[in-house]
Amino acid sequence: MEGVRTAGEGIHVLSFTSAAMSRSIRAGQFLNLRVEEACEPLLRRPFSAYRIEKSSIEIVFNVVGRGTAALRRKKQGDVLDVLGPLGKPFKTIDPGFDTGVLIGGGLGVAPLPLLTSALKQEGKPVVTFLGARSAAQLVTDHLENLHTATDDGSRGFRGNVVDLVSDFLSKHPVEHPKIFACGPMPMLRAVASFARASEITCEVSLEGPMGCGIGICQGCPVELAGPEKSYALMCKDGPAFDIRTIKI
Amino acid sequence: MALTSFRLAGLELKNRVLVASGTYGYGDDCLETADPGKLGGIITKSLSLKPRIGNPPVRIAETAGGMLNSIGLANIGVHRFLSEKLPFLRSVDTAVIANIAASTIEEYCEVLRILEGEDGIDGFEINVSCPNVREGGLIFGTDCAAVAEITRRLRALTKKPLLVKLTPNVTRIGEFARAVEAEGGDAVSVMNTLIGMAIDIKTRKPVLSTVTGGLSGPAIKPVALAKVYEAARAVRIPVIGIGGITNASDALEFLIAGATAVQVGTANFIDPAAGIKVAEGIARYCDENGIPDVADLVGSLDAGSGTSVLDSWL
Ligand SMILES: Cc1cc2nc3c(=O)[nH]c(=O)nc-3n(C[C@H](O)[C@H](O)[C@H](O)COP(=O)(O)OP(=O)(O)OC[C@H]3O[C@@H](n4cnc5c(N)ncnc54)[C@H](O)[C@@H]3O)c2cc1C
Ligand SMILES: Cc1cc2nc3c(=O)[nH]c(=O)nc-3n(C[C@H](O)[C@H](O)[C@H](O)COP(=O)(O)O)c2cc1C
Ligand code: FES
């Protein structure tokens, strides 16, 4: 553990070092952290990989319950038990698009910095939209070409981030876009319907309860599109899914 | 070095720690973190005749020291298991026990018949915690006559080890263990999950989509230990202890209470190598305490003059 620092109102960035993990993480993958050695809380907690700098790895989180409360109390020198990287990366290597349109809601910003670097390596320009309740909850570091929206209008567009995207793209159309979105479910639904209506390919990164993170408990079903009801696993087949493949 | 291997109904296992059904997939998802060849055995996810997609979300909820699940026996079905998973399992140097789930007795028989001739399947464990469609969804495992009939019918179909996995959601588990023994079952696995529930007080809705689910993990260990103790006193066939085992000392308690072997379940979700660590810890305990064979521990409980509340006042 390197430490935990504050990155916004109620927002914390935890960093630790692992040379092997820092080389193998791809944008969109997650890490499963064991919060305590005892059996309270019992299960690991999943977090997107947020930043990698040499062998140092960061996650960004807010305190929503006992696991995240305990993580905030971790100190430099503590040993963290981290399983990962887990899940499939975003599909950035795809000849079907030229520009990455990145959309984050709240801490849905977490996978966007690594995604930005991955897209730039592919030579693809990036435009980023970030929404939050107010300016204090916007985590704007390591993003490019950033446009912000806040519910209270304290920074950028007043209103929700999907309206901002729709407004922006109607005024500044981009060539062959692909949307990558991460955030709360209502926002992802709005992004998906916008993407469908404007015929833009779109990947959304989902969140939900996980038992194991590696595909052995069957605890994280994501309903697939199609006439017959069936499920994929969020942890193994996701957490990012093309919206054409899932019910959203 | 203490002797760790033993024979379970004629089947040689390298140690007394297996991974429990539904908590290790089909063995192929844990490879990066654990070497399944170091386990005493792998019990597969419950296999049904047709694939089952399982229950809608939410399927899991964490509780104090445990978790609730209502997976709905999501599995790829016995045919895809044979073509997609068994080849890998054959390559692992450990015993593979196929766990079977069904909604009619005929379906149990059919799945066992399909698996019986297959090379690489060393035995069967029967999950009787399934609703019997012919009896309006009554759980087979809570009906002693049904457990007896399932054991009798399946016994006639196989010479391989036949384990019946009992549910704790009954008044006297010893009677169910006796029924399995009387019908020729080779062992009983004790226990499956306890029925439990969690409620979201903000919405006043159940957390799980199925309202109730199965409780597992450290929270159930004391219950499981008492059930194993009860079953082990009721029968001569081996009892395999399951419930909340996360480390070697948990497992040792089960062995001392009368379990011939143990299974590690929920602990695999936190550490896929948990079973291997438990097996190594048991061996170390024996070495440190001068115990030549793990078998010496089985049923070694010194209850003194204590009378169990199974037969006295609480
Ligand atoms: C793939 C993935 C990536 C994630 N990335 C991040 C991230 O980068 N930053 C971040 O802050 N959070 C992220 N999350 C959510 C994070 O895992 C949860 O906030 C965390 O597990 C809550 O733990 P807790 O013990 O503090 O809360 P608990 O005490 O377990 O629960 C408190 C509240 O949080 C809700 N909750 C619990 N688990 C989850 C979950 N997995 N997803 C959503 N809500 C949950 C509960 O319903 C409850 O209302 C991610 C989740 C997934 C599945
Ligand atoms: C997510 C989950 C899925 C399970 N699936 C099965 C199953 O398919 N068949 C079965 O017989 N038992 C199943 N079980 C029960 C376990 O095998 C075991 O009996 C129970 O969890 C108690 O042990 P534990 O506390 O070590 O987990 C499942 C348990 C969990 C937590
Ligand atoms: S969290 Fe266990 S299968 Fe996805």
What's the arrangement of secondary structure elements?
The complex is a heterodimer of chains A (248) and B (314).
Chain A: E1 3-8, E2 11-17, H1 19-24, E3 30-34, E4 45-48, E5 51-53, E6 56-62, H2 66-72, E7 81-86, E8 99-105, H3 112-121, E9 126-132, E10 146-150, E11 157-158, H4 161-171, E12 177-182, H5 185-197, E13 201-205, E14 221-223, E15 231-233, H6 234-237, E16 240-242
Parallel strand pairs in A: 8-9, 8-12, 9-10, 10-11, 12-13
Antiparallel strand pairs in A: 1-2, 2-6, 3-4, 3-7, 5-6, 13-16, 14-15
Chain B: E1 6-8, E2 11-13, E3 17-19, E4 41-43, E5 60-63, E6 66-69, H1 77-91, E7 95-100, H2 105-116, E8 123-127, E9 131-132, E10 138-139, H3 144-155, E11 162-166, H4 173-182, E12 187-190, E13 194-197, E14 199-200, E15 205-206, E16 212-216, H5 221-234, E17 239-242, H6 248-257, E18 261-264, H7 267-270, H8 274-288
Parallel strand pairs in B: 3-4, 3-18, 4-7, 7-8, 8-11, 11-12, 12-17, 17-18
Antiparallel strand pairs in B: 1-2, 5-6, 6-16, 9-10, 13-16, 14-15
Helix pairs in contact in B: 2-3, 3-4, 4-5, 5-6, 6-8
The complex binds flavin-adenine dinucleotide, flavin mononucleotide and FE2/S2 (inorganic) cluster.
FE2/S2 (inorganic) cluster binds at residues 210-213, 215-220, 233-235 of chain A.
Can you tell me about this structure?
The complex is a heterodimer of chains A (248) and B (314). With 248 residues, chain A is of the alpha/beta class. In chain A, 21% of the residues lie in helices and 32% in strands. Chain A has two domains: 3-86, Elongation Factor Tu (Ef-tu), domain 3 (Beta Barrel); 99-205, Rossmann fold, CATH 3.40.50. Chain A has helices at 19-24, 66-72, 112-121, 161-171, 185-197, 234-237; strands at 3-8, 11-17, 30-34, 45-48, 51-53, 56-62, 81-86, 99-105, 126-132, 146-150, 157-158, 177-182, 201-205, 221-223, 231-233, 240-242. Chain A has a seven-stranded mixed sheet with strand order 11-10-9-8-12-13-16, with helices on both faces. In chain A, strands 1-2-6-5 form a four-stranded antiparallel sheet. A three-stranded antiparallel sheet of chain A has the order 4-3-7, with no helix packed on it. Chain A is globular. The mean pLDDT of chain A is 96. Chain B has a single domain (6-56, 71-199, 213-297), classed as Aldolase class I (TIM Barrel, Alpha-Beta Barrel), CATH 3.20.20. Chain B is built from eight helices and 18 strands. Chain B has helices at 77-91, 105-116, 144-155, 173-182, 221-234, 248-257, 267-270, 274-288, and strands spanning 6-8, 11-13, 17-19, 41-43, 60-63, 66-69, 95-100, 123-127, 131-132, 138-139, 162-166, 187-190, 194-197, 199-200, 205-206, 212-216, 239-242, 261-264. An eight-stranded parallel beta barrel of chain B has the order 3-4-7-8-11-12-17-18, surrounded by six helices. Chain B has a four-stranded antiparallel sheet with strand order 5-6-16-13, with no helix packed on it. Chain B has a two-stranded antiparallel sheet with strand order 1-2. The longest helix of chain B has 15 residues, at 77-91. Chain B starts with 5 loop residues before the first strand and ends in a 26-residue tail after the last helix. The complex binds flavin-adenine dinucleotide, flavin mononucleotide and FE2/S2 (inorganic) cluster. Residues 30, 41, 45-48, 59-62, 64-68, 107, 110, 207-210, 239 of chain A line the site of flavin-adenine dinucleotide.
